Amino acid sequence: MGSMSMEHRPYRSHKVPACARCRQRKIRCKVDLPNQPCLFCREKGVACQIPAIANSPDDSSPSQPSNSSNTTNTTTSSTNAQKRRRYDAEALSSTTSNLISISQSSGGIDGKSSIIVGPSVAEDVEIVQRHMSITPQSQSSHRHNSTTYATEDSLGSVVYVTVPKYRRGVTPKLDTGDKQREIVEQIFGPFKKEAIRLYFELIHPCFPIIGEELRLQLLGQQWNEVNSALLCNIYASIVPLWDRSEILRLHPRPDSDYIWNLAVRALQEDSTSPSFSTIFICAINVIGRPSLYYIGNIANSSRVVALSHSFGLHRDPRKWNKPLAEKEMRIKIWWCVFIIDCWSSLSYGTPPNIAKGCHDVRLPEIQLSTSSASSGSPRTQTLEY
């Protein structure tokens, strides 16, 4: 009776599973002789390889299995238990390693991005780092002391933490949007520097989101080292103003739609590993003209607000232990992001992403912003306005 039940059992039966070769070929695993390989394996002259399957506690059979079956089931259960314990240990180790990497300092760590958390969760970060570390106590205390606070007083201060910058399994790219930039610069030819100069003459004074250091780099000799995705969006924003330049108006205007499509692709590539420059790229993309892709602008507006929150731009940095230029840049960028969110909400009829009471950045001070600018220059007049 036992052999008959095994012979006429259904395919993929849980009581008598098919061997590995029959399962791979998706054929019927016919067992016609007890304690012998199946018909297909006997014809090939090989032994059956039964995959290890954990037995359910509620499975029952009217017929008693043989002693060899009991031995096989016991060995299988023991093997599966060891695998489960090994998997649980690996999962715990992976989770704890992620917690350690999050609590590390951002300086000199490849593939990491620094974000800022508020005072309400800063204490939780310390507790997680202190009590859930698998490293020795000496190393754990060293990591604990390396936590970076924004101010000297750790009470009520925001804290810097590091998180993975790339998705697991994604190969990091040093320069995002390089292929799109190569195409755009082939179209612009020898007028690339003129396009950048025109951007800072006509667009930047109206919306000065790019910092002074980056502006000087773009106008200087090291402009080739700037992020390619940022340059693609700067080039695209200049195309509608092509005739405003005495040099560019003498040459054919590039196709605006084609240039903007390349700029959008460069932005999407940069968004796979967002950084501080992604805020600049999103902002320039949103304020670019002509504004026709409404869904993309809404998504980019939400993205730039989310990144600003992640980098702590919504917190007042005046008391932070940071250089004056960085604090000035953070304040200016935040209010540019705030303007983008307000205008996007008004233009597209969507709720604003920045809620009242969730930011404490005061308005920029003119005496700080104009400290390095000459009196009467267009930049100074824009800031005063």
Automatic annotation (TrEMBL):
Renumbered residue ranges of the record's region Disordered: 53-95
Provenance organism: Orbilia oligospora
Low complexity compositional bias, start-end: 55-80
Residue span, Zn(2)-C6 fungal-type domain: 18-50
Keywords: Metal-binding, Nucleus
Record GO terms (molecular function): DNA binding; DNA-binding transcription factor activity, RNA polymerase II-specific; zinc ion binding
Gene Ontology terms describing biological process: DNA-templated transcription; nitrogen catabolite activation of transcription from RNA polymerase II promoter
Any Gene Ontology CC annotation: nucleus
InterPro entries reported for this sequence: Carb_Metab_Trans_Reg, XnlR_reg_dom, Zn2-C6_fun-type_DNA-bd_sf, Zn2Cys6_DnaBD
Family matches, as PANTHER family: GLUCOSE TRANSPORT TRANSCRIPTION REGULATOR RGT1-RELATED-RELATED (PTHR31668), ZN(II)2CYS6 TRANSCRIPTION FACTOR (EUROFUNG) (PTHR31668:SF10)
A Pfam cross-reference name: Zn_clus
Protein name: Zn(2)-C6 fungal-type domain-containing protein
